[in-house]
Inverse folding.
């Protein structure tokens, strides 16, 4: 024992217990910080550096100052893909969070455990499936002349909808697929939040004569506000970075109708090999996400209640 | 000094250093340095940058097995990328490996990426090696000249040995033709004949609807419509946009009319012709030989092939793939020996049996396996009489992206064919101008 203690003292020499505790704490978070530096911070700094270059992997790069950023001002496609991304983000976040919350509230009611687990699994299942498989299925569902959805709509006398081949419907098709795929995740998080609200609040409110609507808006929503805030932040960041849902279903088409910023960045980098410009566009997206997230945190002080 | 060192001894006793470096150091032509095959007890490690499906991977593993019978002490690492998501990404990864100092000895790539690898100086010229090596010369001689030439650099230098190829040809269902009272299509049928046939084959409503044709809506799949009208997306030398050619507009209008005017083909988005055709939802589509692996595995036999209908010409399109020795190869003679096995007749025979792409050699198709299905299988190689490669400049990925983006707008009716082609021409011209500047350094 004494030997071990001596060794331990040698490892952490002349430290007060408080410093030693802090040192051990830093050791525990060290792997996370190392991962952050290698996989996030370094690529971010490197992207920033590349955004000032006429970049070539093999032929050497040239410093061109702000040229890549100036090019963005004259790029009409960039405005389109940003507009697409904003539209997608607004609808995808609203419907994912909204439907996820509704499903969670419904499942939080007194259901037999078997039924609750069954429904929870059904709603969560799409989250687990790879986008590539989903795309194959949904292409089959969405096809205008040979698709399943239009086949059943025809029984209602509805003309075939050009889900993927019309510039307006294509974005709707993408949002529907995204909500189908991801709302189960929101549901699960909301469900966990709902189950952590103490029953005593509801019982006390019911004794005071509160009805279901009042219980929901006066107790459930305020108590769930940290979870709602978490879902809004996570889904907004995810929606602004949407890529795989689009590339597998429409590849950004028809034309640029469903092309997102990240898909555009990918194409600039890997199809036109213009890495410098791609890095510049990605820096603007980074800045936008940073500002929007900071705004969300600032606004959250007014409506998020931590117990 | 060079006279005092025996070339054979050098190769045998120094562990087979790079023949290119050797040739440079001793002032001899590369071909002379490559003429000698390394001895069988050579030790080494070769890396192949490769692509394709699982069946092809097994086929190339067999080729590596044959190589290892000759060179048991050489470890071959096959970096196999299952059907890459675009050649741009595939080439970028290759460049990143080169920039990172990660070795690649042999590069496999489709024609769409060959010019970029040549421009980026990633592959070795092979003309000297071919002239000095009977085996390599035989491989080149056994391949149809049009296939071999398509993979050459702009100056006519050979870098690639043909790996496989595919054309675009019409797949049709003979049973549907018979049911509709139609004779099989004539080999010299025209666009008008095609449309008339497609109209006859289109019938039904809702879920029971059968379409005459499913458009293969991708750059390679659309190209026969341009070639059979004597035009193309790029000029003959692949240096500039050709989308302002009135024949391009005529061709695009015809393709557009198949869906929107005549209704003989389903809307293109979300449609996979190679699922609809065997399912009997469409009576014709266009493809190379690649769907036959699926036809064979699902025992689907109601298919035959016929040339693409013609307007001003009978020219169809082909794409091919090749093997090249990487400029970063550590042991060039050994890499060449491996290519001999990868591009061997035995590999071509296996390709025929698998039913994927067409083999490089016509001679590998002169057997029952190839000719028994489809009935007119000889038309695959027959198409080589009037064929052009898919235009594949060094910026192919960008060209394809621009063209298909505007085509999808045209097919979605968000712009007219005139508007779409005009916008595409402007964008493509700028991209080709940028390429020219890049080439000029």
């Amino acid at each position: 024992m004494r030997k071990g203690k001596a060794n331990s003292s040698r490892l952490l020499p002349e430290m007060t217990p408080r410093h030693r505790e802090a040192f051990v704490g830093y050791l525990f978070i060290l792997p996370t910080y190392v991962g952050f530096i290698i996989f996030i911070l370094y690529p971010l700094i490197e992207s920033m550096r590349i955004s000032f270059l006429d970049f070539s992997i093999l032929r050497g790069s040239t410093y061109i100052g702000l040229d890549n950023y100036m090019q963005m001002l004259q790029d009409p496609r960039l405005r389109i893909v940003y507009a697409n991304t904003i539209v997608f983000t607004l609808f995808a976040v609203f419907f994912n969070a909204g439907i996820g919350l509704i499903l969670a509230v419904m499942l939080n009611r007194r259901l037999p455990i078997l039924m609750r687990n069954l429904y929870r699994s059904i709603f969560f299942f799409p989250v687990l499936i790879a986008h590539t498989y989903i795309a194959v299925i949904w292409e089959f569902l969405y096809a205008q002349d040979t698709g399943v959805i239009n086949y059943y709509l025809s029984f209602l006398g509805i003309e075939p909808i050009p889900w993927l081949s019309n510039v307006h419907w294509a974005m709707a098709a993408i949002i529907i697929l995204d909500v189908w795929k991801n709302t189960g995740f929101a549901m699960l998080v909301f469900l966990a939040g709902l189950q952590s609200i103490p029953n005593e609040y509801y019982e006390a409110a019911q004794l005071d004569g509160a009805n279901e609507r009042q219980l929901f808006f006066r107790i459930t929503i305020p108590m769930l506000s940290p979870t709602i805030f978490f879902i809004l932040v996570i889904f907004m960041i995810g929606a602004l970075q949407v890529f795989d849902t689009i590339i597998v279903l429409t590849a950004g088409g028809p034309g640029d109708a469903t092309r997102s910023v990240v898909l555009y960045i990918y194409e600039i980098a890997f199809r036109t090999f213009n890495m410098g410009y791609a890095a510049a566009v990605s820096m603007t997206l980074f800045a936008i996400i940073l500002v929007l997230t900071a705004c969300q945190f600032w606004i959250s002080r007014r409506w998020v209640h931590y117990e | 000094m060079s006279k005092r060192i025996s070339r054979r001894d050098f190769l045998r006793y120094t562990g087979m250093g790079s023949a290119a470096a050797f040739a440079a150091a001793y002032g001899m032509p590369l071909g002379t340095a490559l003429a000698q095959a390394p001895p069988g007890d050579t030790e080494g490690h070769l890396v192949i940058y490769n692509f394709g499906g699982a069946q092809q991977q097994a086929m190339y593993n067999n080729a590596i097995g044959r190589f290892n019978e000759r060179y048991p002490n050489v470890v071959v690492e096959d970096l196999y990328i299952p059907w890459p998501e675009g050649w741009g990404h595939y080439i970028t990864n290759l460049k990143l490996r080169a920039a990172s100092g990660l070795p690649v000895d042999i590069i496999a790539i489709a024609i769409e990426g060959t010019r970029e690898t040549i421009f980026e100086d990633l592959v070795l010229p092979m003309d000297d090696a071919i002239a000095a090596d009977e085996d390599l010369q035989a491989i080149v001689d056994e391949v149809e000249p049009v296939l071999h030439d398509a993979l050459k650099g702009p100056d006519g230098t050979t870098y690639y040995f043909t790996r496989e190829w595919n054309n675009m040809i019409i797949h049709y269902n003979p049973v549907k033709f018979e049911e509709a009272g139609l004779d099989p299509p004539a080999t010299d049928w025209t666009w008008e004949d095609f449309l008339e046939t497609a109209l006859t084959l289109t019938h039904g409503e809702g879920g029971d609807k059968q379409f005459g044709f499913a458009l293969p809506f991708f750059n390679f799949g659309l190209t026969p419509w341009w070639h059979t009208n004597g035009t193309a997306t790029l000029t003959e030398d692949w240096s500039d946009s050709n989308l302002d050619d009135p024949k391009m507009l005529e061709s695009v209008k015809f393709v557009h009319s198949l869906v929107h005017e005549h209704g003989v083909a389903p809307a293109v988005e979300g449609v996979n012709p190679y699922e609809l055709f065997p399912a009997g939802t469409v009576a014709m589509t266009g493809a190379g030989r690649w769907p036959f692996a699926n036809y064979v595995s699902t025992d689907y036999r109601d298919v035959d092939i016929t040339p693409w209908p013609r307007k001003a010409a009978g020219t169809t399109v082909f794409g091919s793939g090749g093997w090249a020795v990487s400029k970063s190869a550590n042991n060039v003679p050994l890499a060449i020996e491996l290519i001999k096995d990868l591009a061997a007749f035995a590999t071509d025979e296996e390709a025929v049996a698998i039913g994927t792409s067409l083999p490089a050699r016509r001679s590998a198709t002169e057997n029952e396996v190839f000719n028994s299905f489809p009935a007119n299988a000889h038309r695959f190689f027959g198409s080589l009489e009037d064929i052009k490669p898919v235009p594949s400049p060094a910026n192919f990925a960008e060209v394809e992206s621009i063209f298909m983006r505007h085509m999808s707008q045209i097919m979605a009716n968000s712009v007219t064919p005139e508007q779409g082609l005009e916008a595409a021409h402007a964008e493509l011209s700028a991209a080709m101008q940028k390429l020219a500047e890049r080439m000029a350094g």
Summary: Residues 17-50 of chain A form the longest helix (34 residues). The CA atoms of residues 150 and 157 of chain A lie 10 Å apart.
